[in-house]
Amino acid sequence: MDEKEHKLQDIAGDKEQATPDTETKKDTVEQNTVIGEPVLESTSDTDTKISTTEENQLKEEPSSDTDAVVSSSKENQPNKDDKVLEEIDQENAEDAEDTENQKRHQIPVLDYHSMSMENLVGELQRLVKNEKVQAINKHVNDIKHEFDHKFQEFLEHKKEEFIASGGNEIDFRYNSVTKRQFNEVYGEFREKRNQYYKNLEQSLKQNLEKRLGIIEELKGLVNVEEDINTTYKNFKEIQEQWRNAGPVPRNNYNDVWRTYHHHIEIFYDFLHLNRELRDLDFKHNLEEKLKLVEAAESLQNEPDLGKAFRELQTFHKVWKEDIGPVAKEQREEIWERFSNATKAIHTRRQEHFNQLEASYEKNLIKKNEIIASIRTISENISDNHRGIQSQIKEIEAHREAFFKAGKVPQKVNEATWSSFKDAVRAFNRGKNNFYKGLKKEQHDNLEKKRALLGLALALKDNDDHAMATPEMKRIQSEWKKIGHVPRKYSDKIWNEFKNACNHYFNKLHSERNETQKEEFANFEKKSACLDRLKVFQLSGDKKKDITAIKEFIAEWKSYGRIPFNKKHINGKFNKIIDALFKKLDVSKQESELLKYGDKIKQLAKSDNDNAINNERTFVRRKIEESKSEIRQLENNLQFFSNASEDNPLVKDVIKNINRHKKALDSWKAKLKNLNIMENNLNKESQEKEIESSEEE
């Protein structure tokens, strides 16, 4: 880096870019003090912000202060290219009011649009706690803008839910902790900001008066009758006073500087009496301004546009505040170079902003697609809870995507936001209408479950298990078919119903456990009997062997019921018995009758008329079933009238007919034996009655 660049760097320092801040300007103490010059009657932005000394060089030497500043030639009017100069003037005016303002450029502006309300509150707290209040005004305004939008949407959603649940709109109230936190932090910011500007106001007023006084001293140097060297020395002292006079209100900044420079130029014109002294200053000022021009021109190669513009702003500040005028014949030329370098940066920035606008247009397309998707969902609200919950997740995903989609062009920002809110609100209305209808259905379900609960409570102590058990099972089945009930009743009614059912079935199982003990004892006995049967060997004496087998059968049947899941043991027993009868050349029908004979004996011993009648009914039903099967098979056989008896299908039908006929004969024989047993029982009963009457 050469000496010139070092010197320029020292001049520029570390000053940063500034951006206009609307709210800060509103809150800044209004300064409408007219500078003590008749030429500054107007302080409007249009008339005062753009014109600078080098921009509006006078074509001829001014004859008075008024003529110099009031000149309204065409060259004094702003054009489109000069907007960047106006912007820089405004930024420097703001920074000049308080150097802490510059720090706002070092505070990153986050994507507040994509943040949740809670995160916005957190970021606001961080800024208010850690940063200078005058440096965060734009950040706070952006945060408040996004928070207000999001909270309004949230509040409307809650209001719709309140109305959908039967509430009256005028009764709606919502206490938001997040909103309360935001208001507290924002209130703290406003209090700090107001206190800051209140303290700043007096200082700015005093500095303004001081600078106006310095201008008056500067004016008094012209045409004074004293040694020119003494006058020049006084001039240098006035310049030093000016540099140390402190900041003035931003809306007076440009006017004061313009007036000061105007009288500086008048003084230099006055110095024509000592051209050598004047030219020495002009030469120094020209060298310094050339450094700024070259530095500004080199910014064309700076890739960081933000950094380039901040440095350019600093150059303009140095140009205005630290360097005096140059020779009149060089003023326009050097200002033109500086102005062109400034406009070149502005052109690059404008191209950059145009690219941003193009990206904003893409974001707009994306956001419109999201809005369309939300509308599609809101027009097709699901008719069930699960579907609604799935759609709620979709809406939340779309909502998050909307906030992350980025900025849209400012001209459609509010319209896009409004369309988004309308689409979400339409879904919320449809969702709330569904749940409003669902609540009525849930109340109907509650009444149905209450009725079932009443039945369960009435049956829970009933000992008629034959009736109560199937009824309790039916009630449980019906309960499962009924849908949801209101959440505040759900747990209570379910626990009452469950307790009633558990009470009944626990009691039933307790009684069955006692029965099962006897059944397991019977199973153990049958297992022992089966083990002895497995090792039984035929003696060769058929009569003796049949008697032994019948004893096994009688013993087996004497043990009664066994557990249901153990009944396979009966099959094992019957299989061995059938095998033994087969070895003894006893037909299946005979073996069936032998086994049935033992059953008849058991019935006879039981002395239970109902058991005998039930058995007779069972046997007769089996007889009818066998007859029906035989008739059906014989009818089927007629379809094969022309078929040979060797036909496999004919053989199969005949085989089945014969099998059912054997079964029919067996059942008839069982019925006959049952009738004989019953007649014998009747005879025995009659004989006992006769004997009893004779004894009397």
From TrEMBL:
<dbReference type="InterPro" id="IPR007139">
    <property type="entry name" value="DUF349"/>
</dbReference>
<keyword id="KW-0175">Coiled coil</keyword>
<protein>
    <submittedName>
        <fullName>DUF349 domain-containing protein</fullName>
    </submittedName>
</protein>
<dbReference type="Pfam" id="PF03993">
    <property type="entry name" value="DUF349"/>
</dbReference>
<feature type="compositionally biased region" description="Polar residues">
    <location>
        <begin position="65"/>
        <end position="76"/>
    </location>
</feature>
<feature type="compositionally biased region" description="Low complexity">
    <location>
        <begin position="41"/>
        <end position="55"/>
    </location>
</feature>
<feature type="compositionally biased region" description="Basic and acidic residues">
    <location>
        <begin position="1"/>
        <end position="29"/>
    </location>
</feature>
<feature type="region of interest" description="Disordered">
    <location>
        <begin position="1"/>
        <end position="84"/>
    </location>
</feature>
<feature type="coiled-coil region">
    <location>
        <begin position="616"/>
        <end position="696"/>
    </location>
</feature>
